[in-house]
Amino acid sequence: MKKYKYIVVKKRLGVTSVFLNRVESHNALNEGLMLELTDFCLAIRNDVKTRLVVFRSNAKNFSVGADLKEPRSKETKLFQWKHNRGKDLIQAILNIEQITICLALDTPTKLIANGKPSQFKFIPKLISG
Fold first, then answer.
1. Which residue in 15, 33, 64, 125 is a FRET match for 80, CA 20 to 30 A apart?
2. What ranges do the domains of the chain cover?
3. pLDDT tens-place string over residues 74-111
4. Per-position b or e across 112-129, b if 16+ CB within 10 A of its CB
5. Residue 6: pLDDT band with limits 50, 70, 90
6. How many CB atoms lie within 10 A of CB 67?
7. What is the DSSP string of 64-111?
8. Residue 126 has what pLDDT?
């Protein structure tokens, strides 16, 4: 698997864990992180050995959201609209074929299967252990 700057990918027994790894910025979503996550999501669809994808964090929290410290783009509004990284990322996550879970500490876990979100009030020990 490809080496990334902002995410860490670990594979074990059919489970691929993706750790957001911008610890110093509380995993704020900058363009680089969103591009890497999108790239990962597009690539994992072809991985027949992965049956479960788990999004996690190496930071104290999962993510604080958009990186407000990132310099604003000088591109035109049309260019920004056509290259909407957030929209591309969400679409790539929803298109992952494998069962996908986001573990954000001990909060309710969202499972996306076949593009349809469901919410669970527990974290399976198999995944969080």
1. 64
2. 7-128
3. 777 666 666 678 889 999 999 999 999 988 755 444 55
4. beeeeeeeeeebeeeeee
5. very high
6. 19
7. -SB-TTSPPP-S-HHHHHHT-HHHHHHHHHHT-SSEEEE--TTSPEEE
8. 45
Q: Nearest 5 degrees, angle CA 100-CA 103-CA 104? A: 140
Beta bridge partner(s), residue 16 = 11, 53
Interior angle at CA 48, CA 19 and CA 93, nearest 5:
45
Contact 27, 64 (CB under 8 A): yes
111 - beta bridge partners? 101, 118
pTM confidence score: 0.75
Answer for the pair 58, 20: CB distance below 8 angstroms, yes or no: yes
CATH number for the domain formed by residue range(s) 7-128: 3.90.226.10
Alpha helices in 10-83 (DSSP H): 31-44, 77-82
In this structure, the strands spanning 116-120 and 109-113 are: antiparallel
User: Would you give the DSSP letter of residue 29?
Assistant: B
Say whether 15 sits in a helix, a strand or coil. strand
